[in-house]
Each structure stands twice: as C-alpha cells, then as structure tokens.
Design goal:
With 154 residues, this protein is α/β, with parallel strands linked by helices. Helices cover 37% and strands 22% of the residues. The chain has 5 helices and 7 strands. Strands 4-3-2-1-5-6-7 form a 7-stranded parallel sheet, with helices on both faces. It is globular, with a radius of gyration of 13 Å. The termini are close together.
Length: 154
C-alpha cells in the first residue's frame, strides 16, 4: 500500500521521520512531494527501515529530489503536483505544513482519501479527517482507514 505524507517545517521533521519509519515497517511505500523538511524526513525514516519512497516533484529536474527518494517523478507543474501526491496514496498523513499542505488536505478529501493530521497541525474538521497525538497513532489510524475503503488506491 502507498501512503502519502505531506507537510513542511523543520520543527516537524522528527515526527515526520517517525511516520516514514513506521509506515515502512508496516510494508507501505511512502509518497511525498520529494523536496526537503517534512518530505525529506519522511523519506529518510522510510529508508532507515528498509522501505521504498516516491517523490513527486513540482519541478522538471530529477536532481531536485531529496537523497532518500527511490523513485522520482518530475512534473514541471509547480503546486499542481500536490494533487498527484495525495492521489497516489491510499491515505494521507499531514505533519505540520503551510498553505500547500492545506491544499493537499482538500484535494485528498475531494478524492475520498482519508486524512490524518498529526498534532499540532492544521485545525481542519470534516468527514474523513482525523487527528492523531503521535506518529504511531497516525500510522495505525491511516492504515485502518485505508483498509476500510472499498477499493483503496495506491
């Protein structure tokens, strides 16, 4: 199963790395936007646990990917790549983030993907959006929600 990890902010890297590691330990492929901060940390955690990572870049340059991305997808479409990031996961875990993360949460819900926000995070509520106090709780919840879908993507 593929799970998308979204977010930004150096202050959230430790939690993102743990999310990536825990997902890989559960056999998931980690999908991110392929750049730095939360995206790099999630990939780094997944690689530390022997997992596989996919980075969907906003640019046309594969060398822009962080060093922990196994499979680089270049798009050249800027922020529009956010749709591809969340569409590629059966569930989405948000760690920190700014406006791009908020857009990804909205895209994920529009596509029917469950979203788990790791505290502290965006204060958004609605059907299909859950909150988790810890990375472990976020991973457990995201995988359970994805398994509950009739036809999980990714």
């Amino acid at each position: 199963m593929q799970v998308s990890v979204i977010g930004s902010g150096v202050e959230h890297e430790e939690r993102a790395e743990e999310v990536g590691r825990l997902l890989a330990e559960r056999g998931c492929t980690v999908v991110t936007g392929g750049l730095g901060e939360v995206m790099a940390a999630a990939c780094r955690g997944a690689k530390a646990a022997g997992g596989t990572t996919i980075g969907i870049l906003p640019t046309e340059r594969p060398e822009d990917a962080n060093p922990w991305v196994d499979h680089v997808v270049v798009t050249g479409v800027g922020h529009a790549r956010n749709l591809a990031v969340v569409a590629s996961g059966a569930a989405v875990i948000a760690v920190g983030g700014s406006w791009g993360t908020l857009a990804e949460i909205a895209f994920a819900r529009r596509l029917g993907r469950p979203v788990v926000v790791v505290e502290p995070g965006w204060e958004v509520v609605g059907d299909g959006i859950e909150r988790a106090a810890t990375p472990a709780e976020a991973v457990d919840l995201a995988l359970r929600l994805a398994a509950d879908l009739d036809e999980p993507p990714g």
